[in-house]
Amino acid sequence: MQLAIRRDSDTPTYRQIESQIRSLILEGRLPAGARLPAERVLARHLGVNRTTVVNAYRELAADGLIAGRAGRGTVVLGVAERAEASAEPAPVPLAWSGLIRPRLRSIQSPLVRRVADLAARQGTISLAAGIPEILTSPHIALDKTMGRLLDSCRESLLQDSPVLGLMHLREELARRLALKGCSRPAANQILILSGSQQGLYLVAQLLLEPGQAVLVESPTYVGALEVFRALGARLIEVPVDEQGMRVSAAEQIMAHVDVRLIYTIPNFQNPTGSVMSAERRAALLALAQRHRVPILEDDLYGELFYEANPPAPMRALDRGGFVLYLGSLSSVLGPGLRLGWLVAPPALIEPLAALRRTVDLHPSNLTQQAVCELLGDGSLDAHLAWVRRAWASRRDALLDALESHMPPSVRWGRPQGGLYVWCALAAPLNSRELLEEAANEEVVFVPGNVFFADGQGEAYMRLSFAHLSALDIAEGVRRLARAVKRLEKQPKHDGPSVGEHPIV
Amino acid sequence: MQLAIRRDSDTPTYRQIESQIRSLILEGRLPAGARLPAERVLARHLGVNRTTVVNAYRELAADGLIAGRAGRGTVVLGVAERAEASAEPAPVPLAWSGLIRPRLRSIQSPLVRRVADLAARQGTISLAAGIPEILTSPHIALDKTMGRLLDSCRESLLQDSPVLGLMHLREELARRLALKGCSRPAANQILILSGSQQGLYLVAQLLLEPGQAVLVESPTYVGALEVFRALGARLIEVPVDEQGMRVSAAEQIMAHVDVRLIYTIPNFQNPTGSVMSAERRAALLALAQRHRVPILEDDLYGELFYEANPPAPMRALDRGGFVLYLGSLSSVLGPGLRLGWLVAPPALIEPLAALRRTVDLHPSNLTQQAVCELLGDGSLDAHLAWVRRAWASRRDALLDALESHMPPSVRWGRPQGGLYVWCALAAPLNSRELLEEAANEEVVFVPGNVFFADGQGEAYMRLSFAHLSALDIAEGVRRLARAVKRLEKQPKHDGPSVGEHPIV
Question: What does the alpha-carbon distance between residue B203 and residue A268 come to, in Å, rounded to a whole number?
Answer without folding.
Answer: 35
